[in-house]
From TrEMBL:
Pfam families: YjdM, Zn_Ribbon_YjdM. Residues 5-32 form the Protein YjdM N-terminal domain. It comes from the Bacteria. Residues 50-119 form the Protein YjdM C-terminal domain. Belongs to the YjdM family. This is Alkylphosphonate utilization protein.
Amino acid sequence: MIENLPPCPKCSCEYTYEMNALVVCPECGHEWVPAESSAEGEGTAGERVVKDAVGNVLRDGDSVVVVKALKVKGSPSGIKAGTKVRSIRLVDGVDGHDIDCKIEGFGAMQLKSSVVKKA
């Protein structure tokens, strides 16, 4: 258990509390991993950190769920919210598309990490 919890990085509230592996701010509801700031520092030096729509760190091979409906060029129906995507691969894509994957019924494509949630 961490004795001196850091203040909230969003609203600077000093009344944060620990919940499992997360630190939570009671004022704004922001949740984060206390060692996250050091992980981000390491990420810039070596491996970059990719997070999903709710802030979970993504890794190669993870399964994710699409959180909002996506239009697909050339397809009459897009990708529906709730579609599960297995075995993602993190890449340096174009225009923020940092996930390379295969979606059943659509084939290989790239997605933005901001439209998926870790499954």
